Amino acid sequence: MALLAVRLVLLLLAGDLAASLDSLSSEFDQPSEYRTPNCNQYKLPGCPRDFSPVCGSDMSTYPNECTLCMKIREDGHDIKIIRSGPC
């Protein structure tokens, strides 16, 4: 009877551990809300001077989406927008 109780407790603990690991791994995955900047709307190399900062996936803050597009064009890196606003 005691062996059955120990098995039951271990089974419950294993289930809790698996659920915790699943939530932890999803916390560090790349969020799906990363978005690709719409660089086709800008006539590069000139950008408007509006200040509407965006945070790039390279963890740099850009004054606006257009300046991020200029960086992508210059360096050739695929930088996504993590969020609107500074990093």
Automatic annotation (TrEMBL):
Residues 1-19 form the signal peptide. One of its GO terms (biological process) is male germ cell proliferation. Gene3D superfamilies: 3.30.60.30. GO terms for molecular function: serine-type endopeptidase inhibitor activity. GO terms for cellular component: acrosomal vesicle; extracellular region; neuron projection. Pfam families: Kazal_1. It comes from the Eukaryota. Keywords: Disulfide bond, Protease inhibitor, Secreted, Serine protease inhibitor, Signal. It is found in: Secreted. Residues 33-87 form the Kazal-like domain. In the male reproductive tract, binds to sperm heads where it modulates sperm capacitance by inhibiting calcium uptake and nitrogen oxide (NO) production. Serine protease inhibitor which exhibits anti-trypsin activity. In the pancreas, protects against trypsin-catalyzed premature activation of zymogens. PANTHER family: SERINE PROTEASE INHIBITOR KAZAL-TYPE 2 (PTHR47608:SF1), SERINE PROTEASE INHIBITOR KAZAL-TYPE 2, SPINK2 (PTHR47608). This is Serine protease inhibitor Kazal-type 1. The lineage of its organism: Eukaryota, Metazoa, Chordata, Craniata, Vertebrata.
